[in-house]
Amino acid sequence: MTLKGRDLLSLADLTAEDIQFLLTLAAQMKQGLVKPTCHQVLGLLFSKASTRTRVSFTVAMYQLGGQVIDLHPNVTQVSRGEPIADTARVLDRYLDIVAIRTFRQEDLQEFAHYAAIPVINALTDLEHPCQVLADLLTVQESFGSLTGLTLTYVGDGNNMAHSLLLGCALTGMNIRVASPKSHQPLPKVVELARAIAIANTEITITDDPSMAARGSHVLYTDVWASMGQEELAQARIPIFLPYQINSTLLASADPNAIVLHCLPAHRGEEITNTVLEGTHARIWDQAENRLHAQKALLSSLLGLVA
Ligand code: CP
Ligand code: NVA
Questions:
Q1: Could you tell me which residues are beta bridge partners of residue 70?
Q2: Residue 199 sits in the same domain as residue 71
Q3: Does the chain have fewer CB atoms within 10 Å around its N or its C terminus?
Q4: Which residues are 271's β-sheet partners?
Q5: Are residues 27 and 100 in the same domain?
Q6: How many domains is the chain built from?
Q7: Are 120 and 8 in contact (CB under 8 A)?
Q8: Residue 306 resides in a domain
């Protein structure tokens, strides 16, 4: 299996086999069983804030022996209006691989169209595929396998909801997304998830968090206002409060359920402090797994492993 030279703009760019390959490789790298090396250079083009993604990509590349250039739009000509197509064609000549965090998925796609090097989605308004690779690794570590488990996402039908829909569909995990009717995942992503789902995977979109959480193996949430939506945050609190992960919701899940959150978290909003700091949470392992999953991804896209 080789992913050499490919882009990861959406989780749907991967097949079920690709994901299993990456998760196995990430687990082997985490145990120190596989240690590829490289001398290549990763560029980070981030137009939004980031702690985990920025640092885990940087450390992953350093551990592989490569180098990283952190390119903020303010220190390049991007902020002065140089077109994406021109930036992409130039950076393509210097860098070996690039991770981009931006707003519009279309901007990411345009960059990838003009750059031959692998382009990785490090979060857009539409998707956050690298986060979901780490999430799947965390679930696999907790339960031994993925197929047949049920993951419940409660909250905003945002980039996290979208990539979780696709990731669960490709790994045979049932997924229930519970969001207010006004903030459900985009129908085109739900349709894509249904189209690529492996046999018997159930995909449920509802506005009923209690029904969605019942008997679930994984409870997942994310902020109610994503980056770029800060001015909507206050108005959204009363709309989303019924979708909080708290002890009551957790009690209705499977007794061995784990709780995940991509972070950063707003305690008292989408998740209570009690649950976030409680025994069911696997949130710090999940954050650590960003490093292992992305090291596997970088190694694969750079052709260091096959
Ligand atoms: N979960 C995540 O992507 O975190 P950062 O925004 O800190 O990178
Ligand atoms: N939905 C959040 C995820 C942050 C990792 C955002 O886009 O801001």
A1: 44
A2: no
A3: C
A4: 245, 267
A5: yes
A6: 2
A7: yes
A8: no
Q: What is the pLDDT of residues 237-294, one digit of tens each?
A: 999 999 999 999 999 999 999 999 999 999 999 999 999 999 999 999 999 999 999 9
Question: What is the rounded average pLDDT of the residues 146-164?
Answer: 98
* Atom 7 in ligand 2: residue holding the nearest Cα: 226
Please tell me whether residues 149 and 90 are part of one structural domain.
Answer: no
238 CA from centroid of ligand 2 (Å):
20
Six-digit token string for 266? 């707003």
pLDDT, tens digit, 9 for 90 and up, residues 177-199: 999 999 999 999 999 999 999 99
Statement to judge: residues 89 and 15 lie in one domain: yes
Whether 263 is in the pocket of ligand 1, judged by its Cβ within 6 Å, is yes
Identify the domain containing residue 215 by its residue range. Answer: 131-286
How far is Cα 235 from Cα 59, in angstroms, rounded to an integer? 38
Q: Are 232 and 240 in contact (CB under 8 A)?
A: no
CATH of the domain at 104: 3.40.50.1370
Catalytic residues: 101, 128, 131, 222, 262, 290
Task: Let me know whether 171 and 223 are in one domain.
Answer: yes
Give residue 262 CA to ligand 1 midpoint distance, Å: 7
State whether 261 and 158 are in the same domain. yes
